[in-house]
Amino acid sequence: MIILDGKQTSNNIKDEIALVVQNRKSKGLKTPHLAAIIVGSDGASMTYVSSKVKSCQKVGFNSTLIDLPDDIAEEQLLDEIEILNKDNDIDGFIVQLPLPKQIDEQKVLMAVNPDKDVDGFHPVNVGKMTLDLPSFLPATPYGILELLERYNVETSGKNVVVIGRSHIVGRPMSILLSQKRKFGNATVTLAHSRTKNLSDITKEADIIVAALGIAEFLTGDMVKEGVTVIDVGITRVKDDTKKRGYRLAGDVEFESVSKKAAYITPVPGGVGPMTIAMLLKNTLQACENRD
Questions:
Q1: Residue 49 lies in a domain
Q2: Catalytic one among 96, 117, 281, 285?
Q3: 267 with 163, same domain?
Q4: Catalytic pick among 5, 91, 117, 119
Q5: In this structure, is residue 223 part of a structural domain?
Q6: Which of 60, 40, 37 is nearest to 49 (CA)?
Q7: Domain extent at residue 94
Q8: Residue 102 is a catalytic residue
């Protein structure tokens, strides 16, 4: 069993990006600039955004963090987005999700300039991705593809089961893995909460991407020997034996599934760090697109 180490792989990617940025600076070219808007004080979101800022520092990017109160009006948030859309120094920006209830998430995502949409959530980028045209790929699916490629996990002709149909991970993942690309060409089944006899389907899978947000949902009796398992989930599970009172668990029951798996991602340290690395890669691409 081989651990797909997202932490180490993402550090390798950051080192590669840092070299490109260094080279750009030596030639007098623009330094990539990533901005992030965070609304409110959700703990997980704040941790995630602060790690993005640190990653920007590591690779030599400029970064801007716009921290807004959770009672902000939708119109004010849209005004902030428009300022970033028009700012020529900002190459790409993200609006950290989830957003407070008074704000229409879809309207916010639609307001982002597609050329600066380094999260890859705008319908223009989603449409281009679906048609296999050059676009910003959603960071988490992009990170999974990169992890499979760097560990040389064969996908061509394989049976892949993606569990979860979110617009952020499940649906784009199913499209990308089925496309005619180096690490694609798979036969993909997209499963979800209404799928019947799910374990019968997962037992046939060569590769499983678990992205449904239920802690330790996928268990050892649901997979076959030699499977590759990508665990996208991360949930805080109450655990009184831990100092913090909780532990982090993925969508996969690691203990039982890892006994059968040929490759598996850990939680934490698997897909999460890759998401941030690919966000940086998209930002560098956005900067290069504007050169």
A1: yes
A2: 96
A3: yes
A4: 119
A5: yes
A6: 37
A7: 28-113
A8: no
Are residues 101 and 151 located together in one domain of the fold? no
Q: CB burial class (10 A; 0-12, 13-18, 19+) of residue 73?
A: exposed
How many domains, the chain? 2
CATH of the domain at 96: 3.40.50.10860
Single out the catalytic residue among 14, 52, 116, 281.
52
Q: What is the pLDDT along the chain (291 residues), one digit of tens a residue?
A: 999 999 999 999 999 999 999 999 999 999 999 999 999 877 667 777 888 889 999 999 999 999 999 999 999 999 999 999 999 999 999 999 889 999 999 999 999 999 999 999 999 999 999 999 999 999 999 999 999 999 999 999 999 999 999 999 999 999 999 999 999 999 999 999 899 999 999 999 999 999 999 999 999 999 999 999 999 998 888 888 888 888 889 999 999 999 999 999 999 999 999 999 999 999 999 999 998
Give the predicted TM-score (pTM) of the model.
Answer: 0.94
- Residues 261, 227 contacting (CB under 8 angstroms): yes
